[in-house]
Amino acid sequence: MAGFWQSITGRSRPKQADLDALFLVPSAAITLQTAAGLMPTGTGSVCYRAARGAGFADTQTDVLELIRGAADAPRVEVSGDEFGFTWLTVHRDPDDTGGLCTDLHAVNTTLELEGFGPSLLCSTIPFEDSAGRRVALVYLYKQASFYPFAPAAGQRRDTLLELQVGETLAAEIPVEKDKSRWLALWGTPGL
After folding, report:
1. For residues 119 and 98, what is the distance between their CA atoms, to the nearest angstrom?
2. The model scores a pTM over 0.85
3. Looking at residue 10, what is its pLDDT?
4. CA distances, 103 to each of 22, 82, 124, 180 (Å)
5. 3-state SS assignment for residue 70
6. 42 is a domain residue
7. Burial of 141 by CB count in 10 Å (0-12 exposed, 13-18 middle, 19+ buried)?
8. Which Pfam family, any one, appears in the UniProt record (predicted)?
9. Which of 8, 114, 158, 191 could make an S-S bridge to 59, C-beta 3.0–4.6 Å?
10. Which domain holds residue 148?
11. pLDDT bracket for residue 19 (50, 70, 90)
């Protein structure tokens, strides 16, 4: 009955995030290394809109303690951007993409479990080639898909690199098909 009602009203349920898709990135990283010479930078971020109040502040503190309390704890920092979003950035050894994705998964999952899932925007995992070109795999929380974002000088995009990375990884990760959702994330930490 719900499907019938949705077809009449034109409404559909939002896609559910599949945070486990972040665990596909270490394999995709190997593909990017061999196919495009792109290496992980060891940095990754989760972007969200911080809610006001003690509940959210406590949850963010819990997330930071969780990551910093690990035996092989990475460096973690929290910053804000000009649009009012918060970036929680994790710095690991570039060879530890698996550990980085586990950290990002823990941040997303904790925020989601504490009721702050609607505040999540995206997670980013940057890569760089020997010429200094950078591209991030951006996981869109609300779309449950990835897209590549490759900034170039002067707030321009390297769309050719973005398309190349998207095509290269299409069989390995869920790549966002609607390119209008491939948003520019200027000022992304680590990118």
Report:
1. 25
2. yes
3. 56
4. 10, 25, 12, 29
5. coil
6. yes
7. buried
8. PspAB
9. 114
10. 18-181
11. confident
